[in-house]
Amino acid sequence: MTTVGSSQGSATPATPTKAASAAQTAPAPTTHGPGSSGHGHGHGHGGGGASILHQPKAVWAVAFASVIAFMGIGLVDPILPAIAEALQASPTQTSLLFTSYLVITGLAMLITSFVSSRIGAKKTLLIGLALIVVFAALAGLAGSVEGVIGFRGGWGLGNAFFISTALATIVGAASGGASSAIVLYEAALGLGIAIGPLLGGLLGSISWRGPFFGTAVLMAIGFIAIAVLLKKDEKVDRVPTRLSAPIRALANPSIRLLAFTALFYNMGFFTLLAYTPFPLGLNAIGLGFTFFGWGIGVAVTSVFVAPLLTRRMKRTTALTGALVLLALDLVAGGLLISSTVGLIVCIVVGGLMLGIINTVLTESVMMATDLPRTVASSAYSAVRFLGGAIAPPAAAALAVAVSPGFPMYAAAGSVIVAALFVVIGRKTLRRVDAGGEETEFEEAQALSVGEE
């Protein structure tokens, strides 16, 4: 079968990477990606028997930096009202902090595999971290909401370079098999999503600038750790990926279907995340603890519940069910928009649904085609982040134009559209439901781009 990635990101049998060698001696899981568990429909974990905690220092360095990177998703949530007040900005203007971050992250995803496959994982990670340090610090120093919005865009650029490379790096360097590495990555993702709002709330109670400076300091520590502990890339292990590969990947029906499913789902996701801090009316610490509960929900269902569901039912069934439940939760949020307690419950319950959806969507993308995973992920992410970029300012504008509860209803409608994509496209996703069978060497090939 000829695919976009067949000549763009795969290792060749004559020069297997270290990941390929590892995959030939240990069972490989069926999925890879942020939030994926290695569990599939009818498939369990593979991998070696070593403890997940017994990892090289380089793996812990990348995992630590991953926690900080994922903290950036919810870090600004608790300080949105404070920023609006301090910089005399409207909720719509303030919500653009998410938009600039996600637009740049999504667009940059289209070039990350091209860059990392040429300069190597270590340099790509360090560039990403350096950009985050610089732009997070500049955001903290900004004197206007426009400045913060612009610097958040630079932060998104750094984040794209980092997160697109971190998983492959952890898998390439971890002991105990690829399954243990992916669980470790999941744990870092969940921890970052949960801690981000809490840290944002605690530092934001001192000053809205605090979370930005805190991120810059933590990322600088991560930069030093990776610079010291991660080995230099071997040029011979790199297989260049074409710049056009992610765009061409969208021609694949499965990737395109999943990308647009994620686009509409992310509108609901980021309405819940970026709009609800305003009607809640809590201070920074109150918002921090609220979204800490949300993040814990995302982490728990992502790591534990989603794999349980996909072992017992088809992925498309689990995905459709979770999307419908999320839509109902968003409707409840709209009805309870004036109740602080009721809206908090809806936010936390929404987190539980988000964890399932994130994991199942990522697993589906990773096994939907024969494309190299970095290429498939880049194409998918570029589209899905646009949904997250559109939702925050649109929700704030709808609240003013219609009613405070209306953005939640609109978000629910968007999530239902995502569910319809999955239901109507079930035949296109047959491979996803079948488990995406592949050989161990093909698994290693899929991980080869951008690895150490």
Counting helices, strands and paired strands, the structural category is mainly alpha
Shape: globular
Characterize the biggest β-sheet.
Answer: none
Low-confidence stretches: 1-49, 436-452
The count of domains is 1
Distance between the termini: 28 Å
Short structural description:
With 452 residues, the chain is mainly α.
Any key phrases for this structure?
452 residues; mainly alpha; Growth Hormone, Chain: A; globular; disordered C terminus
Could you characterize the architecture of this molecule?
This protein is mainly alpha-helical. The protein has one domain: MFS general substrate transporter like domains (Growth Hormone, Chain: A), CATH 1.20.1250. Helix 10 packs antiparallel against helix 16 and helix 12 packs across helix 14. It is globular, with a radius of gyration of 20 Å. Keywords: Membrane, Transmembrane, Transmembrane helix. GO terms for molecular function: transmembrane transporter activity. It is a multi-pass membrane protein.
Task: Itemize the secondary structure elements and their pairings.
Elements: H1 18-25, H2 57-74, H3 80-86, H4 91-119, H5 121-141, H6 145-173, H7 177-204, H8 210-229, H9 245-249, H10 253-274, H11 277-280, H12 284-312, H13 315-335, H14 340-367, H15 373-401, H16 406-424, H17 430-434, H18 440-447
